[in-house]
Amino acid sequence: MKAKWTKAALLLSVAAVAAAALYIKSAAFGDEGGQASGALPAASARTRLATDGSQATQGSSAPASAAPEKLINPEQMQQDLDFLVKTIGEVHPSLINGWSSEQKQVIESAYSKIRKPQSDAEFYFIANEIVSLMHDGHTNLYWELENLRFLDLPLFWARDGLVVKDNRGNLHTGDIVTAIGGRSIDDLEQELAAIIPAENNQWIRVQGTTLLRVEALLRHLGLVSNNRVAITVKRGTASITEAFTLTDKLTHKEYNPYPENDVPFSYTFEDNLSLGIFQLNTCENTRKYQVTVQQFFDEVKARGIQHVAVDLRSNGGGDSSVIEEFLSYTDVESYYGYGSLMRYSPELQQARGAEQNSGYAVNERTLNPVLMKTLYPYKGKLYLLTSAHTFSSANMFAVIVQDNGLGRIIGEATGNQPSSYGDILTFQLPASGIHFQVSFKKFTRSSPERDPADSLQPDIEAYTTAKDIIKRRDAQLEKLREIVRAGLKMNSSGN
After folding, report:
1. 3-state DSSP helix/strand/coil percent for the chain, to nearest 5?
2. What is the spatial distance between Cα 125 and Cα 81, in angstroms, rounded to a whole number?
3. CB-hemisphere CA count at 13 Å for 52?
4. What is the rounded distance in angstroms from the CA atom of residue 327 to the CA atom of residue 316?
5. Rounded Cα gap, residues 396 and 304, in angstroms
6. Regarding the domain delimited by 265-494, which CATH topology (the fold level of the hierarchy) does it fall under?
């Protein structure tokens, strides 16, 4: 992503579209659910305990860290921690006034743990304690590993708990997981909150659903015994426990409660409801996206569609200019965009050619005119579908629509705060080779008077439940249809 210094609603980094402390990255997934869907890679691919949510296998030219069993000596770890603390301290907007006393205590604790050689996995979690202090989903640590093993148990964090998505052994679809490795889910959720850089609990659960299936994290939390993980579930009034052997291959396609994102964008129509649904799985303002949006609204006009929905439930972000492109085919004349604070640093100057290497610049929110791209703008109802996976620029899309009163948000609370950090610089620790990224901007929502807010809350709630998982029911889409039917019935009665 290239910075656009003059625009308030600056583009969020594509490289951080689904950030989390230990996000798994690979081309070969057990499901095709999305950038932050909790899909797990097959062990045959080189995987990356990463943070950007994209689906790509690392090429041989990419720098890779050593195998997990290699030990890193104290001098090397100190070199890495020194670099990590210095870099985050100089780049992150929250540290303009330096580290707090509480943060310094955590940093000192991390240094105290490197007095003897550690494996790269152990050192990863030590360094991650520092990164997690930012509570920023875009600032995180990632690292390449080979020969990972996984818990072959499809999971989804639903409204009523951590749910088994597909039958495995004696565990059934819809079972509620109550313990892993003998530790309660409530206890593990607290552990995950200390490990995963996140701004809200939704994002911790999104990433935790993946991480609780990864051997590195399972072992870090002490949940593995003899290469097996005991899972306890609740089914009605019964409690059932089964131990699963960690596997290096996931052969089953897994159910995803949200639409699959195997293409960047697509659209469908339900003419009986006068409804058009534009599924936007990633924010990429390409020529193909622009043409597709135009074609979509051409069909909306031809079909006489009265209700348009943008499905952002599997969207981890990218380029925020997709928002204006979409709105340019509606009757929206202008909208308030985001404000931002950008922190200057030597790192930003070197990476992006910024004009200064210290201080900061503030861009207040602006009223952005919409350049209309059609003679027949859409004048009907606008809805956006969201989930906990809606992140970064996708979250921005929903915030702008809600803050400006342009439409209604249906679904679940989003995965990051309406005002949040973003736009990142990437680095590599000199000794271990572990990669990390750091935000250098703070984005402020278009209606700052609504802050503080933990996440963007939907106007109309529709949360996926265990019952929905069992019935393979799309809770958010069904709520959308319900709202549209009610509107059509009201219009019919009024006529």
Report:
1. 30, 25, 45
2. 12
3. 26
4. 20
5. 29
6. 2-enoyl-CoA Hydratase; Chain A, domain 1 (3.90.226)
Provide the residue ranges of all domains of the chain, joining segments of one domain with +. 265-494
Query: Residue 243's pLDDT is what?
Result: 98
How far is Cα 328 from Cα 294, in angstroms, rounded to an integer? Answer: 10
For residue 118, give the 3-state DSSP assignment. Answer: strand
User: How much is the pLDDT for 260?
Assistant: 84
Alpha-carbon span 135 to 79, nearest angstrom: 24
As a whole number of angstroms, the distance between CA 411 and CA 390 comes to 10
Distance of CA 265 to the CA centre of its chain: 17
pLDDT at 376 > cutoff 80: yes
Please answer whether residues 434 and 124 qualify as being in contact, where contact means their C-beta atoms are separated by less than 8 angstroms.
yes
pLDDT per residue as tens digits for the range 136-159: 999 999 866 566 899 999 999 999
**Distance in angstroms (rounded) separating the CA atoms of residues 423 and 79:** 26
Residue 39 token pair? 């899909």
Q: What percent of the chain has pLDDT over 90?
A: 80
Query: Cα-flanking dihedrals φ and ψ of residue 283, to 5°?
Result: -90, 90
**pLDDT value at residue 143:** 67
**DSSP letters for 193-247:** HHHS--SSHHHHHHHHHHHTTBHHHHHHTT--BTTEEEEEEEETTEEEEEEEE-B
Sign of torsion, CA 222 226 227 230? negative
Sequence-ordered list of residues with C-beta below 8 angstroms from that of 325, at least 6 positions apart, any chain: 285, 289, 290, 293
Residue with tokens 């109802």: 381
Q: What was the pLDDT predicted at 23? A: 37
Q: Is the confidence at residue 49, as pLDDT, over 80?
A: no
